[in-house]
């Protein structure tokens, strides 16, 4: 991206001034280093502001404010030379370096201590001299044949000036740190006899115009289970997703003046839950395996526990609100310019995020159960005494509800209310999500409307998208919970990121998992148009998948009620059976926009459908597709893939393009804004 090769062609091209003088702030370049990798340069906007803050340091001067860098995700304390994240905690320190002298070719900075000594010596010897004097010398003559006009001895190496602008580093001991750095970069076992050329000032001048685009969309990345086992994992996963998204933005969305920012949401480590009670009752045999399960799968048990569920929900909800408030306080123009928020959740995080958005609570489901029992009692025959007692019970419960409502007005919250988010969710991306199983166990059954409102109203979230790898054992489909016949319709195949002219997702026709089954949701002409192409897989390739994993997923989703016990089993046995009674007015699945608007606020605990048998209306199609499937690798083992696929989403370029395609959707509708009109 930066034209280093052209700028590094020779010393003459590097001359910015006619005489040697102190380096300007724009010639110095600041660097940072993560995970012991090579030094990475800050962009010009960041480097220039860091250098100005550094030059403001003085013994008697007031402390310098930390400098925001890297799109505002980090801050740098120039006094201590450390960089730290703003939105999350990180144990590993990120060192920063002020670069003045650089290695030829790689433009890696010399270590700061040596660089300062060389710079001081250079100014003492050559300050005020004309740079042009050195160009009159025989430049083409090999440097070995030139005598050094000045030399500086360092600890394990020395620097020779063959001219004002021809400076070489020679190693006196290959074990020295600076020599190891040089030889490693150049690929030599030891420094060459001709030394390594050094450059004063960075290859590219820093300018305030070299700044990151404004953030128009923030994405909260929510982890699932296992975070207790590896607390920094979600930070690394989000960093991988952010890096892949940057590559896609540069490739396809470079014409846009804004960008999408990804922020990790680490909600697990701050929770105490049961303390160490579970650890104390864990047997010692195969302790390592048991500890791993306690740190991962135990989160699912915590979430199904009425004692700890609220703690998990509040932990995630508070962290989401904290991050949003912090981001807005540091970016006040975000809300003013209509910035949008999306959520990417993984595994169990999808379920918790869904419950926060909809306000679902098991207490409300239990209240539904009691109400259903009352209705059944009213319909049954009973004696006069039983009727009188039932009326008294009904009046008492009504009075109890009135008292609870009054108490609710006095108190800020009750057990059955979950705090809401401070922002509207534009897109909710589920990755490797078991949400469909949880909804099925709560009694959600397919309806006869193709609206997303059946499970998540658009008043709460504009778009729900369920992403999964075909062999991910934790992931399940959501579409068959809205329209049952979609269990026989293939999920939408996610485009490979390098597919040329891919068909827009909204134009892709449904294709069937099993071609022998009768067509139920598309016409013959539409089915015939679904031919093998970059946008739809061949039928034979999809057939194996359709006969194995999808059927297992369908059986798990639609048949999970048969194995439900306790509260879930009671609810499903009562609400899941057929009934001749008319459905409530606010029942999900009714056609018409007005009906959707009326039922939207109550989706957290929807009245459960009165029928769940058969294909309700096979001619109805979904307004928007929800299930999107990654393409399987051509050579990967299906069984090995089942082990690794649940965590394979973070670095996928295909997923990065998929996410950005939907988040930049409104910008793409303007053909002048983007060069990705076809996505």
TrEMBL record:
<dbReference type="GO" id="GO:0004620">
    <property type="term" value="F:phospholipase activity"/>
</dbReference>
<feature type="domain" description="DDHD">
    <location>
        <begin position="421"/>
        <end position="665"/>
    </location>
</feature>
<feature type="compositionally biased region" description="Low complexity">
    <location>
        <begin position="529"/>
        <end position="538"/>
    </location>
</feature>
<dbReference type="InterPro" id="IPR058055">
    <property type="entry name" value="PA-PLA1"/>
</dbReference>
<dbReference type="InterPro" id="IPR004177">
    <property type="entry name" value="DDHD_dom"/>
</dbReference>
<feature type="region of interest" description="Disordered">
    <location>
        <begin position="516"/>
        <end position="538"/>
    </location>
</feature>
<protein>
    <submittedName>
        <fullName>DDHD1 Phospholipase</fullName>
    </submittedName>
</protein>
<dbReference type="GO" id="GO:0005737">
    <property type="term" value="C:cytoplasm"/>
</dbReference>
<dbReference type="GO" id="GO:0046872">
    <property type="term" value="F:metal ion binding"/>
</dbReference>
<comment type="similarity">
    <text>Belongs to the PA-PLA1 family.</text>
</comment>
<feature type="compositionally biased region" description="Polar residues">
    <location>
        <begin position="516"/>
        <end position="528"/>
    </location>
</feature>
<feature type="region of interest" description="Disordered">
    <location>
        <begin position="578"/>
        <end position="616"/>
    </location>
</feature>
<feature type="compositionally biased region" description="Low complexity">
    <location>
        <begin position="578"/>
        <end position="587"/>
    </location>
</feature>
<dbReference type="Pfam" id="PF02862">
    <property type="entry name" value="DDHD"/>
</dbReference>
<feature type="compositionally biased region" description="Basic and acidic residues">
    <location>
        <begin position="588"/>
        <end position="600"/>
    </location>
</feature>
């Amino acid at each position: 991206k930066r034209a280093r090769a052209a700028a590094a062609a020779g010393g003459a091209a590097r001359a910015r001034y006619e005489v040697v003088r102190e380096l300007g702030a724009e010639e110095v370049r600041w660097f940072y280093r993560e995970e012991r990798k090579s030094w990475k340069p800050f962009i010009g906007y960041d480097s220039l502001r860091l250098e100005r803050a550094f030059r403001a340091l003085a013994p008697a001067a007031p402390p310098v404010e930390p400098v925001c860098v890297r799109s505002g995700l980090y801050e740098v304390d120039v006094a201590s030379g450390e960089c730290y994240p703003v939105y999350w905690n990180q144990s590993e320190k990120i060192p920063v370096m002020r670069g003045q002298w650089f290695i030829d070719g790689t433009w890696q900075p010399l270590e700061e201590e040596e660089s300062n000594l060389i710079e001081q010596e250079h100014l003492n010897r050559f300050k005020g001299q004309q740079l042009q004097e050195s160009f009159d010398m025989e430049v083409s003559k090999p440097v070995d044949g030139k005598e050094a006009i000045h030399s500086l001895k360092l600890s394990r190496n020395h620097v020779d000036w063959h001219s004002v602008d021809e400076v070489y580093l020679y190693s006196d001991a290959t074990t020295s740190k600076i020599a190891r750095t040089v030889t490693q970069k150049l690929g030599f076992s030891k420094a060459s006899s001709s030394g390594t050329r050094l450059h004063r000032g960075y290859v590219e001048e820093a300018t305030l115009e070299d700044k990151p685009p404004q953030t128009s969309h923030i994405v909260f990345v929510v982890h699932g289970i296992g975070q207790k086992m590896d607390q920094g994992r979600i930070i690394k996963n989000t960093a991988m997703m952010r890096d892949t998204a940057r590559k896609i933005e540069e490739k396809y969305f470079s014409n846009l003046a804004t960008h999408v920012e990804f922020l990790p949401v680490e909600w697990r480590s701050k929770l105490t839950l049961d303390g160490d009670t579970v650890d104390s009752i864990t047997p010692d045999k195969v302790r390592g395996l048991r500890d791993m399960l306690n740190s991962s799968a135990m989160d699912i048990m915590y979430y199904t526990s009425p004692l700890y569920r609220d703690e998990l929900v509040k932990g995630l909800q508070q962290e989401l609100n904290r991050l949003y408030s912090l981001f807005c306080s540091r970016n006040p123009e975000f809300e003013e310019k209509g910035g949008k928020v999306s959520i990417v959740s993984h595994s169990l995080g999808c379920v918790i995020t869904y419950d926060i958005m909809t306000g679902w609570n098991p207490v409300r489901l239990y209240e539904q159960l009691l109400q259903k029992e009352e209705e059944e009692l009213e319909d049954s025959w009973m004696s006069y005494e039983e009727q009188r007692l039932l009326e008294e019970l009904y009046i008492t419960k009504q009075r109890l509800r009135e008292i609870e409502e009054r108490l609710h007005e006095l108190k800020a919250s009750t057990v059955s209310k979950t705090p809401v988010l401070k922002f509207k969710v534009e897109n909710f991306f589920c990755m490797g999500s078991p949400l469909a199983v949880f909804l099925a166990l709560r009694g959600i059954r397919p309806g006869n409307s193709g609206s997303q409102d059946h499970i998540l109203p658009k008043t709460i979230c504009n778009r729900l998208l369920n992403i999964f790898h075909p062999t991910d054992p934790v992931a399940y489909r959501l579409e068959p919970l809205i329209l049952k016949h979609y269990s026989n319709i293939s999920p939408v195949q996610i485009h490979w990121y390098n597919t040329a002219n891919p068909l827009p997702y909204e134009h892709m026709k449904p294709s069937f998992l099993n071609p022998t089954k009768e067509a139920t949701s598309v016409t013959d002409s539409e089915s015939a148009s679904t031919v093998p192409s970059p946008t739809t897989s061949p039928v034979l390739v999809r057939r194996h998948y359709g006969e194995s994993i999808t059927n297992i997923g369908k059986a798990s989703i639609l048949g999970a009620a048969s194995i439900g016990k306790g509260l879930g089993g009671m609810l499903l046995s009562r609400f899941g059976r057929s009934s001749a009674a008319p459905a409530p007015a606010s029942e999900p699945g009714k056609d018409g926009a007005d009906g959707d608007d009326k039922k939207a606020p109550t989706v957290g605990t929807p009245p459960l459908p009165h029928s769940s048998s058969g294909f309700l209306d096979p001619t109805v199609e979904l307004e928007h597709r929800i299930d999107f499937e990654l393409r399987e690798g051509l050579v990967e083992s299906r069984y090995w893939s089942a082990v690794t696929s649940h965590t394979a989403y973070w670095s996928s370029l295909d997923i990065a393009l998929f996410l950005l395609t939907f988040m930049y959707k409104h910008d793409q509708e303007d053909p002048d804004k983007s060069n990705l009109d076809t996505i």
